[in-house]
């Protein structure tokens, strides 16, 4: 465990130049005078010139006000984090909610990341020729912060997200922040947005680190510049069912990943690939889609944004990580928790027939944590599990993991990082 104070955050707090009223110095000056205006420069100014002078004066006043507001930004930050945001915490879903600050850090190709800074949350500017827009050179991560009784904040295994981003960045030919830079950036962003963390038991603060090729490139090649950015949003349950069982359909024609591809890293393109099948499934009333391998079309891979587990005779099985499945951090944690609870866990190829014959099925992921599966539909055949709630195994694992994440029990796994 580690404890730190929000005072350390203020040193890195910077205004967001991306949303500043003036993008460059030229906007502060008058347009060039036309030739006719130059000839009469000493005569009384025309109405048009008077208007220009008035506009210039107004711009200077606005700029002064902007600088004054920047000078008190730290005071604003201090006031904001002392209060809880005005949100209906009892009806918080999994949707985007703009918060106060984001964190930005840049790097040139082959270089090292510069010192990052907190900026006011706002839109960013990208060249139309940015590598992320043209060639999909981008990664993201997802992790959560929880508020404990008493006000302290818990992060869950942020160094694992940092390591996974570094692994993905290597696959995508991108420079990545160090583990220390990643974790410090997460801590700074969370503390700067402290008032947006839901009260204990009401949800969590979802943290979204992004790594993207922001430099302009025309030919197919790695971008010349990269941006690491973190923003956050308060969230509730991922599925509209909450922690009630979800209903999945097995997709046997479209595939999420291929051997040798990028299915095993958290690149942005992996998620665009599932939208067609997912949209069709939701239109039919299913919660999400479970994908099969693209070679044999009989082995389980993963749900659109979750890993899958099946339980049979108290033995827990999950598809092995072989390059086409994302190595989920919640997946890894559930495996460790299950083994610590005395369960046998197998990481191996799992067939769709085993899925249909299982006693319990559940999904894991940062967003969903642990979600019980109520039914699976495959080639028109629907199989249901349990009595409409958590199975005994998934309930036990869910309780142990969430108690650790929320600081309700002693962290004997040394997984949480505490902030105050």
TrEMBL record:
InterPro entries per UniProt: Aminotrans_IV, Aminotrans_IV_CS, Aminotransferase-like, B_amino_transII, BCAT-like_C, BCAT-like_N, BCAT_family
UniProt xrefs under PANTHER family: AMINO ACID AMINOTRANSFERASE (PTHR42825), BRANCHED-CHAIN-AMINO-ACID AMINOTRANSFERASE 3, CHLOROPLASTIC-RELATED (PTHR42825:SF2)
Molecular function terms, GO-annotated: branched-chain-amino-acid transaminase activity
GO cellular component labels: chloroplast
SUPFAM superfamilies per record: D-aminoacid aminotransferase-like PLP-dependent enzymes
Gene3D superfamilies, sorted: 3.30.470.10, D-amino Acid Aminotransferase, subunit A, domain 2 (3.20.10.10)
Modified residues (N6-(pyridoxal phosphate)lysine): 266
Enzyme Commission code: 2.6.1.42
Family in the record: Belongs to the class-IV pyridoxal-phosphate-dependent aminotransferase family.
Keywords: Amino-acid biosynthesis, Aminotransferase, Branched-chain amino acid biosynthesis, Pyridoxal phosphate, Transferase
Superkingdom, natural source: Eukaryota
Protein name in the entry: Branched-chain-amino-acid aminotransferase
Coiled-coil annotated spans: none
Cofactor: pyridoxal 5'-phosphate
Source organism of this protein record: Dipteronia sinensis
CDD domains for this protein: BCAT_beta_family (cd01557)
Classification lineage: Eukaryota, Viridiplantae, Streptophyta, Embryophyta, Tracheophyta
Catalytic function, reaction form: L-valine + 2-oxoglutarate = 3-methyl-2-oxobutanoate + L-glutamate; L-isoleucine + 2-oxoglutarate = (S)-3-methyl-2-oxopentanoate + L-glutamate; L-leucine + 2-oxoglutarate = 4-methyl-2-oxopentanoate + L-glutamate
Single GO BP term: amino acid biosynthetic process
């Amino acid at each position: 465990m580690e404890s730190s104070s929000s005072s350390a955050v203020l040193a890195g707090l910077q205004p967001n130049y991306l949303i500043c009223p003036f993008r460059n110095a030229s906007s502060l000056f008058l347009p060039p005078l036309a030739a006719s205006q130059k000839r009469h420069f000493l005569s009384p100014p025309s109405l048009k010139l008077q208007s220009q002078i008035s506009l210039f004066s107004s711009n200077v006043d606005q700029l002064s006000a902007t600088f004054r507001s920047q000078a008190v930004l730290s005071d604003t930050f201090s006031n904001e984090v002392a209060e809880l945001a005005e949100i209906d915490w009892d009806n918080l879903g999994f949707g985007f909610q703009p918060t106060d600050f984001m964190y930005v850090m840049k790097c040139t190709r082959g270089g090292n990341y510069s010192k990052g800074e907190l900026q006011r949350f706002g839109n960013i500017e990208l060249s139309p020729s940015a590598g992320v827009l043209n060639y999909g050179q981008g990664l993201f991560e997802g992790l959560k912060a929880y508020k404990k009784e008493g006000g302290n904040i818990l992060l869950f295994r942020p160094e694992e997200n940092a390591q996974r981003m570094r692994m993905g960045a290597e696959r995508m030919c991108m420079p990545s922040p160090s583990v220390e830079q990643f974790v410090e950036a997460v801590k700074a962003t969370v503390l700067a947005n402290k008032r947006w963390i839901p009260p204990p038991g009401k949800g969590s603060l979802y943290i979204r680190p992004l790594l993207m090729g922001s430099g302009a490139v025309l030919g197919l090649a790695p971008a010349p510049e990269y941006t690491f950015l973190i923003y956050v949003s308060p969230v509730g349950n991922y599925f509209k069912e909450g922690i009630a069982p979800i209903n999945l359909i097995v997709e046997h024609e479209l595939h999420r990943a291929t051997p040798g591809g990028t299915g095993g890293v958290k690149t942005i393109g992996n998620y665009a690939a599932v939208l067609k099948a997912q949209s069709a499934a939701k239109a039919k009333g299913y919660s999400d889609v479970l994908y099969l391998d693209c070679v044999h079309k009989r082995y389980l891979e993963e749900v659109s944004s979750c890993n899958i587990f099946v339980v049979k005779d108290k033995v827990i099985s999950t598809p092995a990580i072989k390059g086409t499945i994302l190595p989920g951090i919640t997946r890894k944690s559930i495996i460790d928790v299950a083994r610590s609870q005395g369960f046998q866990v197998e990481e191996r190829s799992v067939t769709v027939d085993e899925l249909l014959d299982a006693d319990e099925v559940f999904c894991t992921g940062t967003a969903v944590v642990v979600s019980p599966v109520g039914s699976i539909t495959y080639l028109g055949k629907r199989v249901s599990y349990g009595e409409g709630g958590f199975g005994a195994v998934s309930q036990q694992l869910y309780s142990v993991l969430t108690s650790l994440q929320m600081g309700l029990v002693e962290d004997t796994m040394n997984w949480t990082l505490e902030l105050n």
